[in-house]
Amino acid sequence: MIAHAETVPSGRNPLVKFILRWLLTTNHKEIGTLYLSLSFLLFFIGGAMALTFRAELAQPGLQLMGADFYNQMVTLHGLVMVFGAVMPAFVGLANWMIPLQIGASDMALPRLNNFSFWIMPFAFGLLLSSLFMPGGAPNFGWTFYAPLSTTYGPPSTDFMILGIHMMGISSILGAINIIVTIFNLRAPGMTLMKMPMFVWTWLITAFLLIMAMPVLAGVVTMMLTDRHFGTSFFEASGGGDPLIFQHVFWFFGHPEVYIMILPGFGIASEIIPVFARKRIFGYTSMVWATGSIAILSFVVWGHHMFATGMPLATELWFMYATMVIAIPTGVKVFNWVATMWGGSMTFETPMLFALGFVVMFTIGGLSGLMLAIAPVDFQYHDTFFVVAHIHYVLYPGAIFATMAAVYYWIPKWTGNMYDERLGKIHFWTAVIALNLTFFPMHFVGLAGMPRRIADYALPFTGLNTFATAGAFLLGLTQLLFLYIVIKTVRGGPKATDQVWEGAKGLEWTVPSPAPLHTFEVPPKVD
Amino acid sequence: MSQEAIHSGDGPPDYYVPHSSALPIVGSTALFITAFGAGHFIQQSTDTVPTNTGSFGFWIFLIGLVAVACMMYSWFSTVVKESYQGLVSEKLDRSFRQTMFWFIVSEIMFFAAFFGALFHARVITVPWLAGASDNLQTHLLLWPDFADTWPLFLTPGGGLTQAMAAWGLPFINTVILVTSSVTITLAHWALKKNSRGPLKVWLGLTVLLGSVFLVLQVVEYVEAYHELGLTMSSGIYGSTFFMLTGFHGAHVTLGTIMLAVMLIRTMRGHFTADDHFAFEASSWYWHFVDVVWLGLFTFVYWF
Question: Smallest Cβ distance to A110: which of B17, B91, B235?
Fold first, then answer.
């Protein structure tokens, strides 16, 4: 027996109905769309901030803005991209796809799901409003190190802290919902080791979120009391230590890095087998590798702090523990390559983005190994080399994975195929632009250009001009992506239910577009 | 509240897909008002931001808090009503249980951040400031008179305080909290045997013990501020002391409210011997608060 009632009382003004539908919805597909839309909006806001400071870096000297505004842009760019673009994009994909992939009719706690989403726009409203406050927005980098953020932070820092608290509540509630959904709502017959890789990686990511986000809440709370209530957690004259900030922050920060990449691993593991028309190579090892990466992520945080004067034994521990992560990560890259080996490959846009992910994420992984070596990190620390590294793991990593997922699943969401020719143009221009932007940063970083500084020495000019040109091209290609998405939502060749020739899995058994309610009677999986 | 029931036969629905609901958007708006008010309240009341004067922050903060409380009341009563309509399947019950479990895990990690700060300060920072490891120059050049002690009576900057003795009020509070963990378990056993009388007695006693704990903590704070000179600003010892005991006290307050609600619901005849998840969740939370206190007593007061 299935009973559907009207979600919103009929007979109202269509605009009111439209707004109420999106404000009040408890449907995982609608909430997924909300998350993806918010993330897309914040991606452009964060991108505009990046272009602002890249424009300043096109030439040495200060042309367009003062150093303080430059620092505000750098800080907000980081915060918006990490918490506003990458994380909600993955949560949006989880909302849309996890119930479809495990054969559930919705998330386990649909009202909580809506709550998790609608906290986010408010949290970012609070964070971005800091730009208009006296003293300007936070200006100490997205890692908000004490004492820059405590003794020297602008008044708006308090609102950044409260905004982070709100994001944390949203992330924790969302993560709990995802774990509970995966544990309880799987279709009969879908054992844990039959779950699609995207579901597995999200299960582990949700665990990381629950463990890491409260620690972030703790550290920003200590900032707040240091700023206003006279505590001395990060103040040496009171017996505290700015290093306590760094330890607690990075205890959150390093798992956070994996929160931003594990779902991407899952997406690559979904897409590559489909377009290679083979089963994924080493499914079990993929699951174990993901779990190992998650556990290791809690014992390596000190590699962000090699240059702070930790004792030798501590440095060695963090160095070796960090290098160990290369093993499960290597297992994954090996498995993706082995999946393609001998497959009948085709190169539609999702596959291109997934391959771009594998290749360029590996470049980021290798520069990560360089940074893991404590003695040489003394040279790389706080240079553009670190900027290059983090952008190679996040842009072709997290963001390419999200784009691959959008191209892969958008026919299921909208019922329409995207424009394949435009998709390929998007991919190739993005690849060129992104390497133009970020590759030169390796060189200027190794040559000693510090990060988070608005001006630089003359010899760095050529490569920086290149990087700025690349960044603007990269921004343009994402406008093309926006156009492709809008075009696909509005129409296009009709997609079949299976969409992709090699696609298997429950999400491809429901009609395209997926109706609002699916799997009201659980499917049987054998 | 109408419900979208998805049945495959008799009994509760296979899936729980509640109707679109105004509770979450009210909740997130209330949360925003609370945060916005809190930011202004903190800046206005601590006088550390010269550009922000006035007193509107407090009122906005208060309105936000009341709104959050109303939303939570309404949300939980909705869930209780749904449970009475037979809409909670075994699967959903399991989901609720696991949700509470993971929520408590996240709370433990929140406390872990402050315990981490405490351990780092005690084991690393304070000895280093006194010249340990290879920090002799820091010691000699910055604070040559600084000595490594814990509790930190004299900060490098010259702040003075006395320590809170473990075996006075804190020990009494430990006994109270451990006893309350026993009484809540006795209440649970009574509920499982459907003996309503003992259930009310043990549950009422637990609420009482929780309240006494809170009163004694207030007494302890007054003593700290007025007799010992121990305040939030008396260096890292005061910082960790008040942060850990303060957040713990806030959690005891929340736990006591939860148990008081359970007592009221028991009085109204809610809960049966085999269906009382809200009671169980509150008692898990109470045990969590108790265990955190044992950590506090050991590392903040005792050693």
Answer: B17
- Collapsing DSSP to helix, strand or coil, A329 comes out as helix
Catalytic residue among A165, A389, A451, A452: A451
Is A77 a catalytic site residue? yes
pLDDT band at B11 (very low <50, low <70, confident <90, very high): low
Judge: A233–B109 Cβ closer than 8 Å, yes or no.
no
DSSP designation for B150: S
Backbone angles phi, psi at A383, to 5 degrees: -110, 175
The angle at the Cα of A98, spanning A95 to A102, to the nearest 5 degrees, equals 150
Query: Using an 8 Å Cβ cutoff, are A435 and A381 in contact?
Result: no
Find out whether A471 and A437 touch, Cβ atoms under 8 Å: yes
Assess whether B114 and B56 both reside in one domain.
no
Does B52 contact chain A (CB < 8 Å)? Answer: yes
Mean pLDDT of A135-142: 95
pLDDT digit string, tens, across residues A245-256: 999 999 999 999
* Cα A77 to Cα A43: distance, rounded to the nearest angstrom: 9
A413 carries an active-site annotation: no
Q: Which of B43, B70, B88 is the last residue of a domain?
A: B88
Assembly ipTM: 0.95
Nearest to A196 by CA among A490, A508, A447: A508
Q: What is the mean pLDDT of the segment spanning B167-190?
A: 96
Q: Compare CB distances from B117 to A25, A181, A222 and report the shortest one's residue.
A: A222
For A105, which residue in chain B has the nearest alpha carbon? B15
Instruction: Indicate whether B167 and B41 sit together in one domain.
Output: no
Mean pLDDT for all residues in chain A: 95
What pLDDT is recorded for position B17?
A: 74
Query: Is B3 a residue whose pLDDT tops 50?
Result: no
DSSP A37-51: HHHHHHHHHHHHHHH
Give the pLDDT band of residue B167 (cuts 50, 70, 90). very high
Query: 3-state class of B20 per DSSP?
Result: coil
Residue B143 is part of which domain span? 89-302
Distance from CA of B205 to the nearest CA of A (A): 32
Is residue A272 predicted with pLDDT exceeding 70?
yes
A279 is catalytic: no
Chain B window 166-225: which residues touch A at a Cβ cutoff of 8 Å?
none
A258 is catalytic: yes
Burial (0-12, 13-18, 19+ Cβ within 10 Å), A364? buried
In this prediction the pTM is 0.95
pLDDT in tens, B222-258: 999 999 999 999 999 999 999 999 999 999 999 999 9
Farthest-apart Cα atoms in chain A, separation: 73
Contact across the interface for B36 and A179, Cβ inside 8 Å: no
CATH superfamily of A22-508: Cytochrome c oxidase-like, subunit I domain (1.20.210.10)
Report residue B50's pLDDT band, with 50, 70 and 90 as the boundaries. confident
Asked if residue B267 and residue B222 are part of one domain, the reply reads: yes
pLDDT per residue over A275-305, tens digit each?
A: 999 999 999 999 999 999 999 999 999 999 9
Q: What residues contact A113, with CB distance under 8 A and at least 6 apart? A: A26, A28, A31, A95, A107, A174, A177
**Could you say which residues from 112 to 141 on chain B have a Cβ atom under 8 Å away from some Cβ of chain A?**
112-114, 116-117, 120-121, 124-126, 128-129, 133
DSSP run (H or E) holding A109? none
Same domain flag for B200 and B277: yes
